[in-house]
């Protein structure tokens, strides 16, 4: 009875305090945690859940097998099994190239539910080069759903069967759990197609693309990731007798250009970059050269945009000019580019001529209209016509 009296007293006190405005009641939950998402059980047979064959001989569901400014893709009788494989050669740096790649809407473009197998399956494909060896496979595998949601995975060398892709067929296995599906809102329950976006440049055969059971096994990495020096700790020598890390492209000779390493003139060492071009012939697709100074890893330039510059030596083959149709700039990892033309205020004496001149291009003179946090490479674009030598190319600090 004494407990009942205490309870009544407490209830009376609560009522009085409530009407007096002294007590505020709030909703509370007994448990504020998140309920874990249940992982689907591993299916006994993958083929009972989803069609596992993505490509093997039959190209009915394949698009992008064509020749254009970016790529030449088609079918070849060089195959690991069956009669045909997919042959692809491409150059994403080609002028006018916006996209290179193919897509496969396997199983007759039916919607495919991968929710039960995302943790247990991988995309397996057989790959070989057309000629030579490659230590990279510059492709982005993209799953696309019927609402245009996407999930991405870059085919890095950790997925290779061997250390390099060569002229012998090998497996490349990319687990579905490695795909980034949150960023572009992929719906794994309604997959439309597998898209293979082609990056940089390459030449490969693909065959026998399928879904397989996959569970990661602990293993020792065959290659320890290299620790690189800071890409913004100046000075950085990008070119002396050779490009840093040999990570450059564009040293080609055709009817529009001669871009080569030459020992005819130099200020440092024995060689310089010889650039001779004529874009006025009307059939020139690309007159340019590029180089990465961070082994093709993204560089965030924002901390040094106001305090750094490109510095190099330049001489003309003949004549003199206050400006040159040589554009110095960058490309980011979205393939956007930005440039600044060589102006008189960049060169000592404000004039370019047959003598070696020191050229300084402050980074803040280059328009920051691309993603300066994810710079892919130094990019030099050539317009009109001309002939120059460039040497001793550096990224340096400058006074504000």
Fold topology:
Blueprint lengths: L1 H18 L33 E3 L6 E2 L7 E6 L8 E7 L9 E4 L16 E9 L9 E7 L4 E5 L15 E6 L4 E5 L6 E8 L2 E13 L22 E4 L8 E2 L3 E2 L2 E6 L9 E7 L9 E4 L16 E9 L7 E9 L4 E6 L14 E6 L12 E8 L2 E13 L3
Antiparallel strand pairs: 1-12, 2-5, 3-4, 4-12, 5-11, 6-9, 6-12, 7-8, 7-11, 13-24, 14-18, 15-16, 16-17, 17-24, 18-23, 19-22, 19-24, 20-21, 20-23
- Individual helix count: 1
| Approximate helicity band | under 10%
Report the major sheet.
Answer: 7 strands, antiparallel
Distance between the termini: 86 Å
| Structural class by helix and strand composition | mainly beta
Total DSSP E strands: 24
CATH topology of the largest domain: Jelly Rolls
Low-confidence stretches: 13-34
Bulk shape: elongated
What is the arithmetic mean of pLDDT? 89
What does this 3D model show about the protein?
With 400 residues, the protein is mainly beta. The chain folds into two domains: 46-213, Sandwich (Jelly Rolls), CATH 2.60.120; 236-397, Sandwich (Jelly Rolls), CATH 2.60.120.430. The protein is 4% helix and 38% strand. The protein is built from one helix and 24 strands. The strands form four sheets. Strands 13, 15, 16, 17, 19, 22 and 24 form a seven-stranded antiparallel β-sheet that branches. It is elongated and about 75 Å long. The N and C termini lie far apart (86 Å).
List keywords for this structure.
400 residues; 2 domains; Jelly Rolls; elongated; mainly beta
Summarize this structure briefly.
This protein is mostly beta strands. Helix content is 4%, strand content 38%. The radius of gyration is 30 Å and the shape is elongated.
